[in-house]
Amino acid sequence: MNIAIVDYGMGNIKSLHSAFKYIGCDNISVTSNEAALTHADKIVLPGVGAFGRAMKLISSSGLDLVLQELILDRKKPILGICLGMQLLGQSSNENGESKGLGFVDAVVDNFELDEGLSVPHVGYNQIQANNSSRLYRSMNKVLDFYFVHGYKMSSDQDIGQSMCHYGENFIASFEVDNITGTQFHPELSQKNGLQVLKNFIELF
């Protein structure tokens, strides 16, 4: 199994690489090379930071077109993590409107929280899994994961979303055919997170 972690300059790559190694993946590349991405069996899009800056880096390097061909045309499985998940959506209003990769019908916007809750949303939180989810298959009923994010994803379409609540409901993960994403960091979520990565490898 060949795993390619997309390196576009904004990502938690070291801990993610270590997590895949821990679950038994030996062939892991950290790359922005088109040939390496094409050769990969699975692609992971990580991300930490601002949506607009990330999209500029991805677009300026041509990675947006490469990913479009591989994911939408060739149906190669992809997992977006945190900002990487958000980038798979249509747009974000972080620091002004920015277009995303547009792979799923979802948008990213700011939290509207009551007093007493702060942004970013940081720490462990439980999710409500979609009954048909592949990411959480064969897992315990208590599904808690580590989050750190200041913006949230929402959709009025069925994108196989599983939900989390932090002052309001937001998408914790989604699954559409070969495309999936998690707002939480599976590589920082101990046993549950490692199982999510394993399920991505085995079930997508």
Short description:
This protein has six helices and 13 strands. It is α/β, with parallel strands linked by helices. β5 and β6 form a beta hairpin.
Task: Provide the CATH architecture.
Answer: 3-Layer(aba) Sandwich
**Spatial separation of the terminal alpha carbons:** 12 Å
**CATH topology (level 3) name:** Rossmann fold
Find the structural class using helix and strand composition.
alpha/beta
Order of helices and strands: EHEHEHHEHEEEEEEEEEH
User: How are the strands of the biggest sheet laid out side by side?
Assistant: 2-1-3-4-13-12-11-8-9
CATH C-level name: Alpha Beta
| Assembly category | single chain
What form results from the Cα inertia axes? globular
Strands, count: 13
Binned, the helix content reads 25-40%
The low-pLDDT segments are none
Bin the strand percentage: 25-35%
Overall structural domain count: 1
> Going by CATH, what is the homologous superfamily?
Class I glutamine amidotransferase (GATase) domain
The radius of gyration is 16 Å
